[in-house]
């Protein structure tokens, strides 16, 4: 579907929309036309109709995310991008970077733009990405204050109703905390991040963050064990769960139960 | 979150949309579904767009028509967005209504909208105005998260690190002085003791300020000026102050008492004390200000005894906030000096102008110019009445070298013309130094 986007856009601009049997395709085309005409609210309405359709394309995020970014609805856009299972491309990533930036997740934005530049962008997008990277780097020339980390943790706690964004906030806090010369709430942040990602089915991301981290709390150990168990890696999950169960402390009974459920 | 997008929909409440041919009630129902979901989520603009799309495909769709009518009826109650709230809070800040502004900025922060970083910046500035260094640092660091506010926050962050319930400033500043005989806080004694003589000196100063409450401050400043060659002019000054700063809305009142004890070449030179009251009313782009000071000076050496007496000084004017980083202070001043020797009692009227500006990050510039005309009460021994014209100008540059270290350079020039030749003089001081400033908690 996505590979045809440019063609759809071009055709959509040239050909009048007409009713036909392919309702989903018609609304998708109308959405693309509206987006190209900068009528983003109309584009969103059309794409919402597509979203409800049984034959909605798997890569709807490719259309829906940028539309939300254009409407300034960055948190929703991030939710759409992050939960999309379709492979991302440079343009989608660029919009994700902008959504992060506008949502004040500056380190996340910097990561996206820097990676895009490393992979190669056209001159216009590369120039824009370079400006975003430079703007964030200017802010973080000096180590971040503890108050900044605290603020993101507080935001994450307040955003509990939006678990996807909670994960993004904790990840931003983790990235900022990583720039500080000394740990500040590190164990708490990575444990909360992993708990959020485990709950969202992003156990592999949780493992990537926690594995090899020598400063984990008991909660961090528990979330790492859960993550291994969730991805079916019993070999790594078992020793962690055994250690947690043996401590007879927090999560000991949960660990014992999970151990019993692990495949041999 | 979506409620933040409950923006105005007046443009969607006009005439019914042009119908799309042929009508398609089934398709209209899909738009109504999207509209209902958006409306439930508080996403009124998208809901209105969807309902209009539905009506375009099915002009008889009652659900779409009623829902759009309900949205448009509620339009008048649409809340303003964060930008308007931020602008409103800034207007209060500029009018000096700091407490009200702080409440408004805090509300913006609580909403975590697009204006949050801007609100943090102003909360930092308000904390700085209240000498709450720790809060100022936290708020300014939070503002810095947004690159748009990084530069203005960084410009004032060092000041926050130097302020607090207890602050200390230490200064070391070599000076070149073309006329060190003109001592601080004295009539031009040097003009009567011999020709001026240029000398270098080292100025060392230390100031400790304690603020037990937001309104009350206690300050002590010790100054030592050691001359390179004119040791008889080595000067030690002790100045103690106690005051209160009271504020209500746009009005500020400063009451301050102070005491001075100075030594010259190790010998008692001056005992002085007095008080000052200043009122200030912020208008937004400017503030009107007026002050009155009463001071008693008791010179300890016979040579200066004739200058002992009371001084009344008053001024009134306005401070114009030309930009957020540039203030211009213009005042008219009047002073009455009553001295033991009538020949030194005078009435002076004059004008002062001062400018303060932040130039880029970590650089501040201050400049002033003043001039006055003085008429003396008593005749000189030869019967001539003394009339003086006096002018002063100066400027200082401060450059932050770190949160607690700054470099300073400045120059002052003073000129006095008089009907009496003994009181015609000029003086130039050029100085550069380093200061360490620490504040907390």
Please outline what is shown here:
With 264 residues, chain A is mainly α. Chain A has helices at 5-14, 23-36, 40-52, 61-70, 74-83, 90-102, 106-119, 123-139, 146-158, 163-177, 186-199, 203-210, 218-230, 234-247, 252-261.
Descriptive account of the structure:
The complex is a heterodimer of chains A (264) and B (441). In chain A, 71% of the residues lie in helices and 0% in strands. Chain A is globular, with a radius of gyration of 22 Å. By secondary structure, chain A is an all-alpha fold. Mean pLDDT of chain A is 88; it is low at 1-21. Chain A has helices at 5-14, 23-36, 40-52, 61-70, 74-83, 90-102, 106-119, 123-139, 146-158, 163-177, 186-199, 203-210, 218-230, 234-247, 252-261. Chain A has 15 helices and no strands. By secondary structure, chain B is an alpha+beta fold. Chain B has a 14-stranded antiparallel beta barrel with strand order 1-2-3-4-5-6-7-8-9-10-11-12-13-14. The interface between A and B is medium-sized, with 30 and 31 residues.
């Amino acid at each position: 579907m996505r590979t045809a986007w440019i063609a759809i856009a071009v055709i959509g601009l040239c050909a009048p929309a007409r009713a036909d049997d392919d309702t989903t395709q018609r609304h998708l085309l109308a959405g693309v036309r509206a987006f190209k005409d900068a009528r983003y609210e109309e584009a969103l309405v059309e794409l919402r109709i597509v979203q409800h359709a049984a034959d909605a394309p798997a890569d709807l995020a490719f259309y829906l995310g940028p539309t939300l970014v254009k409407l300034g609805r960055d948190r929703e856009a991030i939710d759409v991008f992050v939960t999309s299972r379709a492979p991302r491309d440079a343009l989608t990533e660029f919009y994700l970077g902008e959504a992060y930036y506008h949502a004040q997740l500056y380190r996340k934005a910097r990561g996206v733009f820097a990676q895009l530049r490393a992979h190669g962008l056209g001159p216009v997008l590369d120039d824009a990405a370079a400006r975003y990277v430079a703007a964030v780097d200017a802010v973080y020339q000096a180590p971040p204050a503890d108050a900044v980390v605290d603020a993101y943790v507080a935001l994450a706690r307040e955003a509990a109703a939006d678990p996807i964004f909670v994960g993004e906030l904790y990840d931003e806090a983790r990235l900022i905390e990583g720039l500080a010369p000394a740990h500040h709430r590190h164990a708490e942040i990575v444990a909360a991040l992993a708990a959020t990602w485990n709950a969202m089915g992003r156990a592999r991301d949780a493992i990537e963050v926690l594995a090899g981290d020598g400063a984990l709390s008991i909660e961090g150990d528990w979330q790492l064990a859960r993550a291994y168990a969730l991805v079916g890696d019993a070999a790594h999950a078992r020793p962690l769960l055994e250690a947690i169960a043996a401590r007879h402390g927090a999560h000991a009974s949960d660990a014992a139960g999970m151990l019993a459920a692990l495949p041999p | 979150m979506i409620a933040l997008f409950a923006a105005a929909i007046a443009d969607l409440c006009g005439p019914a949309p042009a119908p799309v041919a042929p009508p398609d009630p089934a398709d209209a129902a899909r738009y109504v579904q999207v509209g209902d979901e958006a409306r439930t989520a508080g996403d009124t603009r998208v809901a209105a767009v969807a309902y209009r799309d539905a009506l375009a495909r099915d002009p008889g769709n009652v659900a779409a028509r009623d829902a759009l009518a309900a949205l448009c009826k509620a339009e008048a109650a649409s809340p303003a967005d964060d930008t308007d709230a931020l602008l409103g809070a800034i207007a209060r800040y500029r009018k000096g209504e700091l407490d009200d502004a702080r409440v408004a900025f805090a509300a913006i922060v609580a909403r975590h909208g697009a204006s949050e970083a801007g609100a943090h910046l102003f909360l930092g500035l308000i904390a700085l105005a209240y000498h709450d260094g720790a809060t100022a640092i936290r708020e300014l660091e939070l503002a810095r998260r947004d690159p748009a506010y990084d530069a203005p926050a960084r410009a004032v962050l060092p000041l926050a690190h130097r302020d607090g319930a207890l602050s200390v400033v230490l200064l070391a500043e070599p000076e070149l002085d073309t006329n060190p005989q003109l001592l601080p806080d004295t009539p031009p004694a040097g003009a009567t003791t011999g020709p001026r003589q240029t000398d270098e000196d080292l100025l060392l100063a230390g100031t400790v300020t304690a603020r037990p409450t937001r309104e009350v401050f206690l300050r002590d400043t010790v100054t030592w000026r050691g001359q390179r060659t004119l040791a008889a002019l080595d000067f030690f000054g002790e100045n103690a102050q106690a005051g209160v700063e009271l504020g209500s809305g746009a009005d500020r009142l400063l009451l301050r008492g102070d005491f001075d004890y100075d030594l010259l070449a190790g010998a008692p030179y001056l005992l002085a004390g007095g008080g000052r009251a200043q009122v200030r009313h912020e208008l937004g782009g400017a503030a009107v200000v007026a002050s009155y000071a009463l001071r008693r000076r008791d010179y300890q050496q016979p040579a200066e005894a004739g200058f002992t007496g009371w001084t009344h000084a008053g001024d009134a004017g306005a401070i114009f906030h030309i930009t957020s980083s540039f203030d211009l202070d213009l005042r008219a001043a009047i002073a009455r000096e009553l001295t033991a020797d009538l020949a030194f009692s005078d009435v002076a009227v004059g004008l002062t102008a001062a400018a303060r500006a932040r130039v880029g990050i970590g650089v501040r510039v201050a400049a002033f110019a003043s001039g006055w005309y003085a008429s003396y009460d008593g005749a000189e021994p030869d019967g001539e009445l003394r009339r003086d014209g006096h002018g002063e100008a100066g400027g200082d540059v401060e450059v932050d070298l770190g949160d607690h270290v700054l470099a300073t350079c400045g120059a002052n020039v003073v000129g006095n013309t008089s009907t009496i030749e003994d009181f015609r003089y000029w003086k130039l001081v050029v100085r550069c130094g380093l200061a360490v400033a620490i504040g907390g908690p």
